[in-house]
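Dear support,

Our group has been running a series of protein-ligand predictions, and this particular one with nicotinamide-adenine-dinucleotide is the one our PI (initials K.S.) wants archived with full inputs and outputs. We had some confusion internally about which version of the output was final, so please treat the block below as the authoritative record. The input we submitted was:
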Amino acid sequence: MKLAVLALCLSAASAFVAAPAGRAPTKVAAAPAAGIGGDLTGKVAFVAGVADSTGYGWAIAKALAEAGATIIVGTWPPVLNIFKSSLDKGKLDDDRKLSNGGMMDIAKVYPLDAVFDTPDDVPDDIKANKRYAGLESFTISEVAESIAKDYGKIDILVHSLANGPEVTKPLLETSRKGYLAANSASAYSFVSLVQHVAPIMHEGGAAVSLTYIASEDVIPGYGGGMSSAKAALESDTRTLAWEAGRKYGVRVNTISAGPLKSRAASAISTKGEKSFIDLAIDYSKVNSPLNKDLYADDVGASAFFLLSDLSRAVTGVTLYVDNGLHSMGMAVDSAALNDGGSLPVPQRV
Ligand SMILES: NC(=O)c1ccc[n+]([C@@H]2O[C@H](COP(=O)([O-])OP(=O)(O)OC[C@H]3O[C@@H](n4cnc5c(N)ncnc54)[C@H](O)[C@@H]3O)[C@@H](O)[C@H]2O)c1
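Confirmed final output from the archive:
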C-alpha cells in the first residue's frame, strides 16, 4: 500500500526541474507512470539470507515481490530443511500474502553457505556434517553458476546475512578465530557475492546489504568483532560501488537498519536477562526522532527504493533506516538527565 503511494507521488514528477534564480529550468525526460522505475516485473532478485519470515531478508523479498520481481533465495544449509518444510506446509502463507491478494512465490531456494567461495574451501567436517549431506553446490561460486544456468542474467542481489560466533563477548575478550569468523561470514561474504554475482547481472542492476550503527558508534553488547565486520561492510560498499559500477554498471549500497527482533538478533542475549535486542528496540523507540516502532517492512520499502531504478543514480551509500536514531547525540531517557534539570523534548501537537 505504502509502495503504491510512493509510486503515485513519483509518477507525478514534473518534466522540468526548478531552476535556481536567474537560470533557465532544465528539461529532463518526462517519466511516464510505469516507466519511472518502480516496476520490477520481469526482473529477478536473489536474496541471500532468508530462512524464516521474521528477518529483514524476507521483508525485502516481499517488497520486491510486491513490485513484480521474481524472487529466488539463498538459505544456510543448517536451516534449509526447516525453511523448506515451513514453506511446503504452508506455515509461512500468512506472511506471503501480497497487497494485491496474491502470494509471494519463492521461485527457487538455493542452499548457500556464504563462508565458502569454492568447493575447495569446504573442510572435511562440513562435508561430513549431516546438515550438508546430499547438498552438492552451496558455495558462493557454485550458487552463482546455478543461478546463471537457471535464470541467465539477474537484476538484484540482496545480502541479508551475518554470523558472529562470539557476538555475546566484548571485543576485549574476542578470540582471533571468533573475530575472523564474524568478518568472514558477515563482511567478506558480501565482497564474494558481488564478485561472483555482479558478472551475471544486467547493467543497471543493484546490490544491497544490511549493516548496523555499531560500525561507527559504540553499541555495548554487540561484540565478537561484529562491529568491525559492519565497519568493513560499509567501507567495502563504497569500494565495490566504484569497482562494480565501472566494471558492470551495477550499483552497490547498504542499509543501516534499526533493531528488529529477528531470529539472528534474538541470539545476541545472555541467559536469564532481557535480551540485547529487546533493550535495543526499547532504547530506539524512546530516543529516536520518530518515536515509533520500526518494522521489517520499513526496511523492505527502503531496500525496494535502492534496488529499483527509483535510485538509479545512487551508489556507494549507507542509508539509515532507523527512525532517525543515528542522528541523536544524547539519550533523552538517560537517568543522568533526571537529576534536577530537564531537556527540551518537543511534544507532538
Ligand atoms: N535484526 C537487527 O536488529 C538488525 C539490525 C541491523 C542490521 N541487521 C542485519 O540484517 C541482516 C539480516 O539479519 P536479520 O537480523 O534480519 O536476521 P535473520 O535471522 O533473518 O538473517 C540472518 C540470516 O543469515 C543466515 N546465515 C548465517 N550464517 C550464514 C552463512 N554462513 N551463509 C549463509 N547464510 C547465513 C541465517 O541462516 C539467517 O537466515 C544481517 O546482516 C544483520 O546483521 C539486523
